[in-house]
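[Automated response] Your request has been received and processed.

Submitted sequence:
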Amino acid sequence: MSAVLNVIKNLKILLIFVTALQITICSAADSADRVLEVKLVGSDHQTYKRLPFEVPAGVGRITIVTQYTGQSDRTVVDFGLIDQAQRLVGWSGGNKKIFTLSELDATPSYSPRPIEPGIWNLLIGIPNIRPDSTSELRAEIYFSKSADPVDEPSVLRTVISKNQTWYKGKTYTPIVGIVTVLARAYKRARWFHALLSRSLRRPANAGLISLH
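Generated structure:
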């Protein structure tokens, strides 16, 4: 019985610690390491452009946040990424405004890989822009020193409270998986402890308890 109680206690402490760590590492917004800006016009209709940016040595993760104007005029911009060796890292079209990649993980439509220094390119495609329309496009690029969740930029998380600037990890963030597993383990341990306690209090002839 004491062993079960110790397990529950340790799980609870660990869960509190990991949750606090998640809040702490997301407590402040980051500033972009690179900013790319370009003005699109009607003549860019159904064309592709490369926006080069330099990746320094020692980067473990690249995160890119994109935004552009003119969507009310049906302007559509698609995004992809080309690495320093001129290889297509991924193409997400227009359905992702934020994407990230490292050696260990990547946003769907992109391939995990080591981040090598050199000139990378944000690839943009303009499948639609009206002849008399313009669009201001901005891309913010964030460099993380490693693929570890602790080093992730806060843009990979959604705000829980604007007053306290807390962030909630997205589903692909590994630390969220850790918190979920610990929470389930803690609940399971509490259930097992309650079940065991009831078992010890039952009369010897009361029969077996079914574990479902």
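Summary generated for your ticket: The chain has a mean pLDDT of 78. Residues 1-29+157-203 form one domain.
If you did not submit this request, please reply to this message.
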